[in-house]
Every structure is written in C-alpha cells, then in structure tokens.
Amino acid sequence: MRHTRTIELGTGLFVLLGFAALFFLVTQITNREFGLGTDGYRLTATFEQIGGLKPGAPVSMSGVTIGRVESIAYDFDEYRARVTLRIESSYDRIPDDSDAGILTAGLLGGQYLGIGPGSSETFFKDGDQIQFTQSAIVLENLISKFLFSKAAEEQPAEGSAKETTQ
Amino acid sequence: MPAAMIRELAESIRETLETLGSYALFAARLARETPRALWRFGLVVEQVHNAGALSLVITMLSGLFVGMVLGLQGFDLLQRFGSEDSLGSVTALSLLKELGPVVTALLFAGRAGTALASELGLMRATDQLAAMEVMAVDPVRRVVMPRFLGGVISMPLLAAIFSMIGVYGAQLIGVQLMGVDSGQFWSQMRGAVEFDDVMEGVLKSVVFGVACSLVAVYEGYHSVPTAEGVGRATTRTVVISSVSVLLLDYMLTAVML
C-alpha cells in the first residue's frame, strides 16, 4: 500500500510540474512583472512615435541602465503614446528639464529609452512627466526624407552642371 | 545469381510491408482499446510514473545543458551582428518549436522506450503473456494499453519541462554570464513567441509520444521470446523510434510552417 502511495505522489508531482511548465510556456508570451516591483519611482513621457519599444526595455543614461519601461499606452487626450518608466530609487537626481529619446541598440538590436540630463537645479519626483521627448526614428520616413531632399537637389544641379565641367 | 538476388529483394520488401501492416493493425487495436483503458486509470498512473516521473531527471538535466549551449552559441552568433538582445527570442523559439519536442522524444525513446520494450519482451520470453491468455486476461488490455497511454501522457509534459528548463538555462548563460540585458531578453522573447508557436511544440510532442510509445510496446510485445530476441527488440525500439521521430519532425514542420 505504501508503495503505491509513493508512486502516486511521484506521479502527481511529475504531472503538476509538467502542467506548470506548460503554463509557464503559455504565459511567458504575455506581459510579466519584472523584479523591480515597488522599488523606485515613476516618470511618464509622451511620444509621437515609439517604434518597437516594449514594456521591460531598459531606460538608460549615458548607457547606464537606471530603470525599465513599465507600461505603454495610447493617450487620447494628446493623441500620443504615453510611456511609463520606473526609475531605480538610487538614481534620484535627474534634472527635471532632461530629455528622453527612443534609441536602438545596434543595427538589429532592441529599442531602449535614453535620457539626456538637462541643467535644471530641481530634480524629477515620482509621477512627473518628461517634457522634452524625441520620437523613435522610423526607417521608412528617414529614407523618404532622404530621397525627397535628393530629388530637390537634382533640379538646380542641372544648371550648375555646366559650370563644374568648364 | 541475379534471380536469387531479385528473390531476396522481393522477400525483404514483402517483410517490410508486413511489418508496416502489422504496426498499423496494432495501432488500430490500441486506438480501439483506449477509451476502455482510460477507465482503469490506476494502471495508467503507475505507467505515467514509470515512463514520465522516472525520466524526469535526465530530461531536466538535458534541458538545462541544451539551453546553456543555445545561450552560448546564440550569443556568439548574434554578437557578430550586434543583435545579442534577441538571444531570448532565438533560444525560446528553437527550444519550443524544435529542440524541446525532438530531443525529449529521443531521450524518451532511450530511457522509457527501452524499458518498456525490454519489460514486455521479458514477459513474452518468460511466458507471462501466455499465462495471462490462459487465465482469459487479455494481455493487450491489461499490460500493453496502460504502458502505451502512460507514454503518450508523459511525453508532452516532459517536453514542456525540457523547454522551460532550457529557457532558464539560456537565460543563465546569456544574462548572468554574458551580460545580455535581462529586460531585453524577456521582452524580446515575449515579443517574438506567439501562442501558436507553443501549440506547435505541444502538438509535435504529442505526436512523438504516440510514435515512441507505439514502437516500444509493439517491439516488446512482438519480440522473439529468447534472450537475444529481447535484446534485439530493445535495439530496434531505439533505432525505429529515433528515425521515425526525425522523419515525423520534418513532415510536421513542413505542414505547420
């Protein structure tokens, strides 16, 4: 009797572990809380375009990670994307005129949020909003801008082409 | 001489077809017996323990090391393109869609499949199966079915555990050792892995579980009742399971991609 009890216990544990693993695999695709928890303070910033920024992406100053993107939502009052950041409490001296920009790590890397310090004497507190923001660069826009400026250059260039050949 | 060769060739083709037909008939019999066997759940639980719980340690250990290797190799490869941040999505997708089901099935064939085949083969060799028939107990119903179902139930669970441990193994190497940002690791993984990818892995592992268990019980049940016969049945189990898992993997991938 005792023998079958241990078999049942072992099997039960195995099945439980198996389903826990399945549950983990299914839920890892949805958003998950990060280890930061309640530590640190929140800032918000609105952007015209956030590109591929995702919750959990690092917030960095001069390349040092000082926090994480906590959530991203669309703000219908401003018609811009509203990004909530959680900054670690040890980084509590960010000037309140600092700017935030969405940058890309490497050519194919993930996007992160970079903060450039301003020169104000007062610092950000919990719940403040970053006023100066720079949107993510969308490659298509960049290319079309480049092409249009090239095309605009071509037209006067015809007249001056003779001068350069002389 | 050529006539003898042709006769031999024809004979071996006939034998292969016979084996294939015998497999199909056995599979059909097992499928027919499944609802009744599920009713006697105690016997199945015992076999889930034998096939699944006892394979747990080797599966977890392999999963950890496969994940760690993926972490190392993936990091080295992605670093060349400056995109080591996508390590999480690369490892998670390869574990979920390919390595999890396939490596688990190969381990399962080696660990649980051989145990099943040699156990049934030894029962055959020591006339235990014949004795059951004399007592009007159907050995397929009493002995084969619980073992088959135990394997079918265990395999997807083992594969899921393998993939989960593998992801943590890759995280251990990529994030802790190589310094990939942990937020990028998880958020990129979550951005790239979709529910369908998880389901693809689960479906694969179910199919492999059926294939491996079927091969093991068939080879054990139909083994030649000698010491050599049991040994051959065990060998054939590993060979046939491994090859059919890899063939099925290609076909399933081609269909689902």
Brief digest:
Chain A is α/β, with parallel strands linked by helices and 166 residues long.
Explain the overall architecture.
The complex is a heterodimer of chains A (166) and B (257). By secondary structure, chain A is α/β, with parallel strands linked by helices. In chain A, 32% of the residues lie in helices and 30% in strands. Chain A has an eight-stranded mixed beta sheet, with no helix packed on it. Residues 30-36 and 161-166 of chain A have low confidence and may be disordered. Chain B is mostly helical and 257 residues long. Chain B has one domain. Chain B has helices at 2-39, 41-51, 56-79, 87-125, 128-134, 139-177, 182-192, 195-221, 227-256. In chain B, α1 crosses α6, α4 (87-125) runs parallel beside α8 and α4 (87-125) runs antiparallel to α9 (227-256). Chain B is elongated and about 65 Å long. The relative contact order of chain B is 0.16. The model of chain B has no long low-confidence stretch (mean pLDDT 90). At the A-B interface, α1 of A face α2, α6, α7 and α8 of B.
Indicate the proportion of strand residues of chain B. Answer: under 5%
Question: In total, how many beta strands of chain A?
Answer: 8
Query: What class would the helix/strand composition of chain B place it in?
Result: mainly alpha
- Apparent shape of chain B: elongated
Please estimate the helix content of chain B. over 70%
**Main interface: chain pair and counts:** A-B, 37 and 40 residues
- Report the order of strands and helices of chain B: HHHHHHHHH
Strand order of the largest sheet of chain A: 7-1-4-3-2-6-5-8
Count of helical segments of chain B? 9
Category from helices, strands and their pairing of chain A: alpha/beta
Classify the helix fraction of chain A into a percent range. 25-40%
Radius of gyration of chain B: 21 Å
Work out the radius of gyration of chain A. Answer: 25 Å
Beta content of chain A comes to 25-35%
Sketch the major β-sheet of chain A: 8 strands, mixed
Q: Average pLDDT of chain A, to the nearest integer?
A: 80
Poorly predicted runs of 5 or more residues of chain A: 30-36, 161-166
Which stretches of chain B of 5+ consecutive residues score pLDDT under 50? Answer: none
